[in-house]
Amino acid sequence: MDSSHFSPVSFMRPAVDAELADFVRRRRAEVLEIGEELAPVLDALEAMLAGGKRIRPAFCYWGWRGAGGPETRAIHVAAAALEFLQACALIHDDVIDNSDTRRGLPATHRRLAVLHASSGWTGDSAAFGQGAAVLLGDLCLAWCDAMYQSSGLSEAALRAGRPAFDLMRSEVMAGQYLDLVEQAREADTVDAALRVMTYKSAKYTIERPLHLGAALAGRHDELAPVYTAYGIPLGIAFQLRDDVLGVFGDPDETGKPAGDDLREGKRTVLVAETLRRAPAAGAAEFRRHLGDPDLSAETVEWMRDLITDSGALAACERRIDRYVAQATDALQTDAVADDARSALADLIVAATARKH
Amino acid sequence: MDSSHFSPVSFMRPAVDAELADFVRRRRAEVLEIGEELAPVLDALEAMLAGGKRIRPAFCYWGWRGAGGPETRAIHVAAAALEFLQACALIHDDVIDNSDTRRGLPATHRRLAVLHASSGWTGDSAAFGQGAAVLLGDLCLAWCDAMYQSSGLSEAALRAGRPAFDLMRSEVMAGQYLDLVEQAREADTVDAALRVMTYKSAKYTIERPLHLGAALAGRHDELAPVYTAYGIPLGIAFQLRDDVLGVFGDPDETGKPAGDDLREGKRTVLVAETLRRAPAAGAAEFRRHLGDPDLSAETVEWMRDLITDSGALAACERRIDRYVAQATDALQTDAVADDARSALADLIVAATARKH
């Protein structure tokens, strides 16, 4: 492999994909025995899994390798299990936000609403889709831990990984709830946005998967502080980059309409910085538009200009740079094995680089 | 204890209650550290847990004791974990059905909608409540397996229990999905109702908890057929009794308005029998009313009369008797330890007796 093209995420992808496919194939028969009507639900699950970026498995894997864990199938399985947690989080998130699309395709509950409508069933198609998606998310959550537990890692390893595995699940749900509360309170401070980001993104996406990998390899206590010092700032930088893309990103790449985060009214750091930096009249008008699902393209353009002209975008980019520097510094330690250190450094770039 | 008043469910209750309280207390601190805003969500969880009947823990426990398992704290913990699965199922079920009440109290999503409204937050209170309830159900599901895994049973026991534990979760979600599909298809046959009942109730409530108990005690293969022969008919009889109560039960005891199942349009065996046995004109009118949320008290009365006069109620009672006899017969074996056999016999009565 040409090292200039080595990607620490896509390196993992074939193994994770294969393990997920294998797990679902074995469970499919079991589920279809309950009822053949479940086939479209499993298809929706496979479609959701296919689109996953394998970010959490990658961090879990490199957390393990950084702790000196060997290349084994078992770690691929345990890491791949995290994709089921992510599938649950996304399926339920789309129900909660009533989002129509995910990665440019119909959201799971929309897909299952279409199944209802095209089958000519009675009742409300949207309600059917939502109900079915809640149940499918539940199934994903149950399969996450079934896959983890059946990974083939030793009982001692699985037990050592449990605290991180359990915290990861509590924290993402708590973080999502805080996000709901902050939206409802119309919180618009940088601190509020950073707290939600810390739990919903930084810990869930990076820190805990790394902790899990280290714990599975039996070196949690030694490596957890290093992985936290790397993972939290990187996770926040990653989310900040995502927030910038949510406003300025190319719809073809993000899979979401341009300016979608503004229509949704997401309380991001970018928004908080804009409200803090813009002139009062502009900030008031910006606040009025934020969260309006019917925002025109012109208004989106006006809002983008205010984000740029107020200096909020530049401030956000400086913040990303600062967090990236912190994450990079955290890797300056011999505690993490060399190849993993290099992969984790590459992951900083992959997670936070500006997209063109 | 006066044996004439011995109840194999309430016998379990103090131990299960204590373990649940202990588990939640330890996690509460962890969750509140993420954000104090989570306190009302944990309160909602505790309210839901407090109302649970501990039926699944009781069957798990007696499945263990029937397999010769000793009286230990660890089995109480593992059995109690099933209450978190049930809490998830009920919280999500109420979201899916958009039910206002559960056991005579506001459903969890309604309770959290009230929190939103009384806090003066912006946005739609109902949507907030539903979103928060979806997340709380997810937390329950994660805690179910966290509690199971931390029960203190041996690794070998936990591993042996895994297949039943995993199947139980897949089956209840699949069963609930089939229920949605059958409602949407307006299925009105006895067979359709029996299939949903088998997965959503009989396996989930009785058979799999018994299998889990036997597996944890290391005797799954020997006892599973006995527990299936007992659990499936008893589970169906239990659900049939519940269906009768859902139409004829005292609102003070069921915690639901009189005739609520008729307003909800539940496709029960009782309904299927009525549609099959009533004169065509009556059946057609019955079908028209079924699922109308605004059914008047008079129409509910008319529907009840048709259920009785058509012979559907008597047929349902005969069916209950038949299933009870099957469950009773299944216990005629030395494979199950004596005290557990006696408790399981008592559970037949407790689960299926007519309420006055």
TrEMBL record, chains A, B:
Domain of life of the source: Bacteria
Molecular function, one GO term: prenyltransferase activity
Cofactor(s) listed: Mg(2+)
Entry keywords, A to Z: Magnesium, Metal-binding, Transferase
One GO-annotated biological process of the protein: isoprenoid biosynthetic process
Pfam families, alphabetized: polyprenyl_synt
Family assignment from sequence similarity: Belongs to the FPP/GGPP synthase family.
Protein name: Polyprenyl synthetase
